[in-house]
DNA sequence: ACTCCTGATTCAAGCTACTCGAACAAAACA
DNA sequence: TGTTTTGTTCGAGTAGCTTGAATCAGGAGT
């Protein structure tokens, strides 16, 4: 469950360090000067920050360029392994990719957003912006909407209040009322669709993985080109397949 | 190439934050009190640090327990993708695992230590402490020694000076002269062995991946139970196989 | 060769904001 | 119920973070 991360007096130094990491995630590489323009502080300060981070292997220097160090992998893997879901879902995601020949994602919710913890590609699967570790908005994709619809209303409101409903494509739902209607529909049928709401030309189906208390602990989605994912395949075949899988994972999670 | 990360005046706040992350990596989970015992500061300070980190999704709160957030995956994946080696090596590591039925690792050097960037397991492969993202000492395992032996002498000395030669098993090489002899041997034959030097009962062979300037940009290793990896298999068959693979990767890296 | 520039790096001084300890609240315990 | 342990808040003081200027290193232009 995501508790609103409101801190009374956050440590500025830490937040600025994270700002550096975030910038390097987006831009791959940066110099001290470039980073100074981005942050709002003296160049000497930026320099000291980056040197400190580099000394701890969080950043790697290559001449004057800095980039993220793979030490993050270490932390990331530890974090991922904590989600038992990963172990349970991985083999079935692989199977699904094999079977459907499309792209399969497993996502979890964290702080009101979603994180892709595992993905597998089928023979014909498409490449999108998404990758393992990617965080995005719950309302923008099938797996996210599946999780969102499974939250109690109060938490949905809270999530929307916190993150808003930013658009990504013209099809993305950015209106609160419209989203609530969509949520009702998802609750009725038990799974969510995504009609080009995250990527143009991409359709998807997502279904929630629930624990023994019917709380959504994650979701799985199948996505592919709109031309291929439509009609009965999208409406009936894939949802049936998907529901079987998420059900199975849920049961395995409940009875280790 | 690893430049000695010596910082004049490191930012204490950042280093303490990293200390928290490191502790959580080792211990999976911790409370504010527990962390306060570990760090040397007031409980209120620890509290503020952890709240700040949690507010930025680097930590996740579960009641009073904190653990690493999977936001690290995001950074880790970005970092890993920067190593083109990963893309080139992955398919061949998978093949090797299939072919040898043993555990295969691909590692790179960073700051005088090694990082496993990818691993694949064959049908009979053993599980060890190692996992993706794991950092350890170059002199303690086959892939690491293969990289180490390929460095110029000055950098080897520098690396040893910085990190020392800590032992892991009774077989680990902890004596400088002995290590230099080993390095000579590795240079002569072109690949490295590991006879229970990292894990008791485990043997391995490792060979370096070199770029067009004969600089080692990584290494690949095959490891398995000592009972299975011995005699001609360990001495001839696997090295031949391995050299073919690292050679191929090297060529592909040089001519994209 | 010399100059000019751009960017990294160092340093002392000033003052921000990080650290501390105490006090409070809340939960666990006996 | 009282007691202990834990998380949390807050004001005050000073450690140490920030700053801007000065220095150094490398490259480009003349």
How is the topology of this model organized?
Two copies of one chain form a homodimer.
Chain A: H1 12-27, H2 32-38, H3 43-55, E1 59-62, E2 65-68, H4 71-82, H5 84-100, E3 103-110, E4 113-121, E5 135-137, H6 142-150, H7 153-163, H8 176-189, E6 192-195, E7 202-210, E8 216-225, H9 231-254
Antiparallel strand pairs in A: 1-2, 3-4, 3-8, 4-5, 6-7, 7-8
Helix pairs in contact in A: 2-3, 5-9, 6-8
The structure holds a DNA duplex (30 and 30 nucleotides).
Keywords (chains A, B): DNA-binding, Transcription, Transcription regulation
Protein name (chains A, B): Transcriptional regulator
Organism (chains A, B): Haloarcula argentinensis
Description:
- 2 copies of one chain form a homodimer.
- With about 260 residues, chain A is an alpha+beta fold.
- Chain A folds into 2 domains: about 10-70, Arc Repressor Mutant, subunit A; about 85-255, Beta-Lactamase (2-Layer Sandwich).
- Chain A has 9 helices and 8 strands.
- In chain A, the strands form 2 sheets. Chain A has a 6-stranded antiparallel β-sheet.
- In chain A, about 45% of the residues are buried.
- The structure holds a DNA duplex (30 and 30 nucleotides).
């Amino acid at each position: 469950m995501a508790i609103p991360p409101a801190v009374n007096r956050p440590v500025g130094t830490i937040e600025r360090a994270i700002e550096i990491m975030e910038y390097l995630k987006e831009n791959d590489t940066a110099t001290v000067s470039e980073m100074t323009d981005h942050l709002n502080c003296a160049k000497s300060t930026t320099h000291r920050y980056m040197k400190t981070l580099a000394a701890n292997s969080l950043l790697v220097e290559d001449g004057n360029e800095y980039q993220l160090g793979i030490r993050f992998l270490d932390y990331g893997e530890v974090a991922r392994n904590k989600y038992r879901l990963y172990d349970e879902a991985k083999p079935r995601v692989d199977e699904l990719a094999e079977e459907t020949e499309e792209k399969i994602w497993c996502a979890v919710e964290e702080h009101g957003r979603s994180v892709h913890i595992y993905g597998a590609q089928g023979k014909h699967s498409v490449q999108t912006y998404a990758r393992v570790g990617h965080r995005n908005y719950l309302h923008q994709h099938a797996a996210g909407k599946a999780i969102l619809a499974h939250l109690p209303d109060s938490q949905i409101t809270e999530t929307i209040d916190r993150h808003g409903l930013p658009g990504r494509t013209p099809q993305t739902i950015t209106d609160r009322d419209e989203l609530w209607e969509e949520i009702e529909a998802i609750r009725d049928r038990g799974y969510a669709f995504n009609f080009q709401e995250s990527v143009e030309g991409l359709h998807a189906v997502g279904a929630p993985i629930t624990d023994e208390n019917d709380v959504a602990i994650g979701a799985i989605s199948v996505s592919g080109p709109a031309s291929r994912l439509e009609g009965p395949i999208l409406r009936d075949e894939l949802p049936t397949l998907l529901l079987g899988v998420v059900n199975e994972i849920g049961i395995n999670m409940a009875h280790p």
